[in-house]
Amino acid sequence: MEWIDFATPKTISEAVEMLASKGDRARAMAGGTDVLVQLRGGRRSADLVVDVKGIPELNVLSYSAQDGLTLGAAVPCFRIYQHKAVIDNYPGLIDSASLIGGIQIQGRASIGGNLCNASPSGDSIPAIIALSAVANIAGPKGTRQVPAEDFCTGPGRSVLENGEILVSITIPVPLAHSGANYLRFIPRNEMDIAVAGVGSSVVLDASGQNIVSARIALASVAPTPVFSKAAGDSLAGKAVSDAAIQEASEKAMADAKPIDDMRGTVRQRVHLVGVLTRRTLNNAIQRARGG
Amino acid sequence: MPGVTHVQTTINGEEVNFLCEPRQSLLECLRDVVGMTGTKEGCNDGNCGACTIIFDGRIVDSCLVLGVEAQGKDMTTIEGLATPEGLHPLQQSFLEQAALQCGICTPGFIVAAKALLDAEPDVDEARVRHWLAGNLCRCTGYDKIVRAVLDASQKMK
Amino acid sequence: MVSNPAEANIVLSEVEFDVVGKRPIRPDGVDKVTGRAQYGADINLAGLLHGKVLRSPHAHARIKSIDTSKAEAHPGVRAVVTAKDLPFSSLSKDELGSDYMRLKFASNHVLAGDKVLFKGHPLAAVSANNPHVAEEAINLISVEYELLPPVLDVLDAMKDDAPLLHDDLHTASLGETSEKPSNVAAHLIYETGDTEKGFAAADVVVEREFRTAAVHQGYIEPHNGTAFWNVDGQLSVWTSTQGAFAVRSSVSDVLRLPVSKVKVTPMEIGGGFGGKITAYLDAIAALLSKKSGAPVKLVMSRTDVFEASGPAPATWMKVKVGATKDGKFTAVQANLAFEAGAYPGSPVMQGMLCAFGCYDVANGFLEGYDVVVNKPKTAAYRAPGSPQATFAVESVVDEVADQLGIDPIEIRLLNAAKEGTRRIEGPIANRIGLVECLEAARNHPHYKSSMGSGNRGRGVACGYWMNRSFPSSVSMTVNYDGIVSLIMGSVDIGGTRASIAQQAAETLGIAYEEIKPTVVDTDSIGYTFITGGSRTCFATGWAAIEAAEEVKSLMVARAARIWDTPEDNVEYASGVIQHKSDPELRMTFKELSRQLATTGGAITGSSNVEPTGEGNGYAVHLVDVETDLETGKTSIVRFTAIQDAGKAVHPSYVEGQMQGGAVQGIGWALNEEYFFNDKGQMMNSSFLDYRMPTSLDLPMIDTVIVEVANPGHPYGVRGVGEAAIVPPMAAIANAIKGSAGVRMNSLPMTPGKVLDAISGEGK
User: What is the CATH number of domain C1-12+430-467+615-763?
Assistant: First the structure.
C-alpha cells in the first residue's frame, strides 16, 4: 500500500476538519472492509485515513417509540443483528446485516460504511430505502438530512461533499401491519456480491388483506441502487394478490437498467429482479401479517 | 519523513508493544513485526478467513484491520489456545477427526470455531456451516472440519 | 486414535494389518493445529529482504524498453533484476544447440525476454527492506510496450491467420515437425480397431461438443520462495513446494548452476494439487539475493496466484459414442483441443488417455491438440486432463443410456474396464476395481433412496486416473531407545508422514508411535520425485518398506553377532528377533536397540526405488441436486464418493482425499471459471469472484473406500489423490438433466447458463 497517515478523531467537528482540510486525499474509515481493500488495490488513494470509530455519535444504536431507530454510521453489523429492538422491529434490516460478507466481515463492517461506499450492489441500501431511512450528515456547513434513496449518485459516489461525514441513519418507527424483507441472488450461499438484490416493505390494513403502501428498491441493476417508486406505488390500495405482486415485479423489472459483466448478464439480472421482487413482497406481507 | 507508531495491545492475555507503519495490517504486524506466524495470509482482502483472529470479542479478518487499530484492544490468536497442560478441545478434535490435510486454513478455522462454541455451546451442523462460511478450505471439503467442531462442542460442555 | 465417522464405509477389504489400515494421529498434527508449523511464508532469516515482481498488464506485447533507474534509486531498495540477469540472455543459439527452445521457454517464463505473453507475466523484480517499499519501487519501473493482438481462444488460436505467440514454435504432429510456425505445439492421435465400422454397427450414436473454462487449483497458500545466494556460491532456497528436487532442478537449470550448489529445503505446504510443482519465484529470489548480498523472500499476492501461476486449461472437446440397443459400446471417439497457455505443455495427452479409461472398447479413436494462447501457462491440476475429458465422455454415456432406457450404472457395468482390458493406447489393465466401485454404488443406500421433494435430479459418473510411480528415497536409523528415525524427501501435503510411517512400522512389526518421520532437504536424502501423481503413499511407501527390510536384516546380523551364531540361525518376526534353536535367546526390537551402542553402533537401512506396478485409480460418484428453476441455481443435496484405494493405509486421509477432490469438482462444475475480457485480462482474480465452495454450500460428503488390492504393492496400495476429482462434474451435469431438464455442455454450469438452457435462450 502507499504510505498513509492515520488519525483517530474523538468528535464530529475534529473529523470534519481533518476531512475538509485534506479534501479527497483523506478517507473516512469505519470497519475498513471496503476502504482497506480499495487502498491496497489502488482503486482509491489517500494520504490520510480518518478512523471514525472513536466518535460517540457514530456508535449509537438506539430505538425509541417516538424517534425510531438511530443507527450510528460506524455500528458494525453484528451489533445490529444482536440488538433486541432491531430484532423485534426491523427484521428487514437484519436480512441485510446478516448477509454482508461472512461472520468475520460482520464483526467490522457497518451499514453506514456500506451506504457511503455507494456500490450499486450494496446489500444494505435497498433494505434501508425500503424502510424509508434518512441519512444524517455533518459537515463544515453544518448538518443536513438526505433520504437514503438520494444518497448514492453514481458507482462509488455519494452526495457527501468535501469534509462531510455520515453520522447516522434514522429509520422511522415501523407502522402497524408493516413488514419488510431483503433478498439477493448470489451463485454461492455466502460471501458473494449480489448479482441482483431487492428490498421490499409493505404496510397492510388492519385486515391484512389490502396493501396501504409499499416501497421497493433494487441493487446491482443500475449505476446506483434504485428506488423503484412506480413498482411500490402500483400496490397502494390494492388487495393482496398474485396479480398485484406480478404487476409490481414487472414495474420493478422496468426500472432495472443493468449491464452485462462477469457477475451477470442484463437478461439474467432483469429476470432476477422480477423473481426477487415477488419473493420479497410475499415475505414482507407475511411479516406484516405477523408471520 | 514518515514515522512509525507505537502500539500497545494485548495478545493472548499478554501485553505486547510493537512499532508499525499505519499502512501495515494487523495480520502483517502479527506475522512480520511481532513474529507470530500462526495466523496465515491467504488473500489479503477478507475473502478466505485464513487470517481470522478474535479481536475485541469478535472474529475478524486481521488483514482488514490496521496494526494501529490494535491500540488498547485485546485479541486472541491460534497461539493462545493451547496451554502447558495441553491442547484446546478444538485442536484435539481436529487431530482426532483428521480435519486437516495441508493445515494452512486450520488456525483460522480453529479460532473461528472457538468464538462460536464459546458463545453458543449447543450448535448443530447448519449453524457450524453458516458460522464458518467465511473460512475457505480447499483440501478437506469441510466434512471432517464440521465433524471436528461438533465433536469439540460435545467435549466442551 | 482418529475416530471413524462411518463404520461401514470400507468394502471388500481382504487383509487386515496391525498398523496399515488404522487411523493414528499424524506426527505433524500438533504443530499444525497450534500454528507452529513453518510454511514457506513463515520463514525469517537474519537480514531478510522482501521482494516484489513487476508483471505485465498486457496479454500480448513486445517489450521495447525497461527503465529501472527510478526503482534503483528509491530509498530502501537493494536490487533490481530483469531477464538480462538470467544466463539465457547471454547464451547463443549455437552454444545451446537442441536445448535452446526449452531453455528459452523456461527462462522467459521466469522473467520475460523480448515479449510478454500473458497478463501477469513477470518482467522485473525488486528487493527492499520491507514489502511496501518494494511495491512502491515496482511502480517506479517504466516499461514501453508495443501491444500485439491477443489470442484468447483455443479454436481461434488454431486458425491459419491467428497471431502467433512464438515465431519459432512448430507443430509436432505424428512424428513430423511442421514447416510453418504455429500456435499448435503438438497434434496427437491414438487409435485401435476400426471406428468407422464400429459406429456403423451401432443402434445409437451420440456425438456432442463441449467447452470448459480455465480453473485454478485454489490452494489457500500463495506461492512463495526465499533464497540466499552466499558469497561462497552456495544457493539455499526455502519454499513451499510439492517437490524440493523439482525446484532444485528448475532453479539450477535456469541459473545454469550445478545441482550440488543448490540446496532446497521444502517448508510445509499449504496445498498444491499439482500447482506447486513449477517454481515461479525461487529463481527470481536467487537473482535478487545475489545482487543484494542478503536473503530475499518473495510471496505472491492472491491476484498474482490467479494471473501468473498455472491454472488448468480451458478446453474444446467433441465426443462420440456408439452402442447397440443392449448398451454395448461399439465404437468411441474423442477429439480434444486444450489451451496450454503461453508455453506448450497442456495435459491434452493425459486427457486422451483417460477419456475412455473406464471402458473396454474394441474400436477407439483419440485426437488431441496442444495449443498456446495468451493466458498463463497451464500446470497440473489433480489428474490433469482427465476431469475435463471425463465431463464430456460421461455426459455422452449418460445420454446414450437415457436414449436406450438403460440404468446409468448398468450401462457402465456392461462396458467396464477390467483386468485384461486393452486400452486404446495399448497397455493392458492389471487387477483394477472399477466394477467393484460400480457395484458398491448400485448397492449403496444413496442410490436406492428417494430424492425427496423439489426439482431434483440424480447423477452418476465414473472416472479414471492412471496413477504414477517415479523414484523415491528413504533412510531409516534405529536409535538406541528403539525409536526409528524415518527420513524421506516426500513433502507431506495431506498426511503422508503418517501413512509412510505406518508402512514402516508394519514392516518392522513395531508400533506406529515408534517411528519418527522427518521430511528433509535435497542435501540430506536421495532424489525423490514430487508429492503428486498419486504416487507418494505407493512409491515412498515402497521405499520405506525396502529400507525397513534392510533394517530387519541388519538387526538379525547384529543379534547373530551378540549371540555368536550364524545369521541363518536367527529369525525376525513381528518385531521380535529370535534364535531359531534356543528359545531363551530372544529380544524385542526395543531390547536389541538398547544393545546397539556397545555392539557396533547404530543401524541404518536405506532404499532408492522406482517401483513398477502402480495400480490404476477408479472412482464413481453419486450426486443428488436441486435446481431453483426461477434462478438456475443448483444446490448439492447429497453426495457419495466411491473409490478403489487398493488398501487404505490411513482410511481417514483416504476419505479426506475423496471428499476434497469431490468438493473441488463441485466448484468446477457449478461456479469456478477464469473470466477474461477481450484484452485477455482476468477480471475475477480474487476469492470474491473466483467462487470456490464454502462450508455453507455443501452437505457432508459420504465416502465408500473399496479395497481391491493392487498386486504391485506389498500392502496392496493404490494411489487415491487424483481419481477423486475426475467424476464430479459429469455426475452433477447428469443430475442437472433430472433437476432442470437440460443437458449442459459447458463448464461451469452457472445459474445464468442453466437459466438460459431452461428457457432455450443463448448458448
Answer: 3.30.365.10
